[in-house]
Known about the structure:
The chain is mostly helical. It contains five helices and two strands; from the N terminus they run αββαααα.
Amino acid sequence: MTPGEPRQAHRAERLRLAVERDGARCVWCGRAFGGLVPPTREHLVPRARGGPSWLENEVPACRRCNGQRGHRAVVEWLEECERRGWSPDVGAVERSLDALARAIAERGGQRRAREYVVAQQRRLRRRRGGPRDA
């Protein structure tokens, strides 16, 4: 962490904040969190693809979805969830991608993650039928 960078919450605190922000359900399959379905921190931009461990890059997901997604792209996994008959929270995913894009713009760096976020936002707009070049 550099001197001007905001202090990030500890991972357990980030998980609590993500659940508070997005609801006590898996953003991918919609299962409610409880004793048998504990929440996990899911990185929208996987760490292997340059994703930071920032709250803006994390959404609550069940272990099954977190493990099965692996390093698949956000939109690819959303579409797989829909094919499986699940109800992913597309709005929460879009809001988190937008927040991550803003955080990267404010904090700088994260070149690989920035490119990934822009590509996923573009794919989400296409799915909605929005403008392609925005």
